[in-house]
Write a structure and sequence with these properties.
Glutaredoxin, alpha+beta, 29% strand, globular, two-stranded antiparallel sheet
């Protein structure tokens, strides 16, 4: 069950791919697209990250920043970002603390085995730190355009 629209986004602290500390509260005053994905260098996650990369300028022109979070390590994120020339921060969450805060863990299965994994999810957080949009079950294709459309609608409604 994802966090609700209208609730305060939980603050978090994490290490980025560049081994710097990132806090959500550092982005107060800006819109934030916070997206959770299962694993670096897998097909769907790579497509999603590259779509955010390719549309990053459009997103920043709307006044938003993009932050990706997965349970991968700082080193894995560093390699993923470098390999695909990603132009936004990736936060390592190996203990799944941030994933738990945002309620994006759920039962998944692979090869008949069930496990607890990251459910691909995206939040849009307003400049005051309030969640304004939630997609708890992202479909990769068309997702970034959907986010851009939502950001534009939210900004017009402001």
């Amino acid at each position: 069950m994802a966090l609700s629209v209208g609730t305060k986004a939980p603050d978090f602290v994490g290490q980025t791919e560049s081994e710097t500390t990132l806090k959500l509260s550092d982005f107060r005053g800006k819109w934030v697209v916070l997206y959770f994905y299962p694993k670096d260098n897998t097909s769907g996650c790579t497509r999603e990250a590259c779509d955010f990369r390719d549309n990053y300028e459009r997103i920043t022109q709307i006044g938003a920043e993009v932050i990706g979070v997965s349970p991968d390590s700082v080193k894995s994120h560093k390699n993923f970002k470098s390999k695909h020339n990603l132009n936004f921060h990736l936060v390592a969450d190996p203990e799944k603390e941030i994933c738990k805060l945002y309620d994006v863990l759920g039962e998944k299965s692979m090869y008949g085995k069930k496990y607890l994994g990251v459910i691909r999810s995206t939040y849009i957080i307003d400049p005051d730190g309030v969640i304004r949009y939630v997609n708890p079950k992202v479909t990769v294709d068309g997702h970034v355009q959907e986010i851009i459309n939502e950001l534009q609608k939210l900004q017009q409604g402001k």
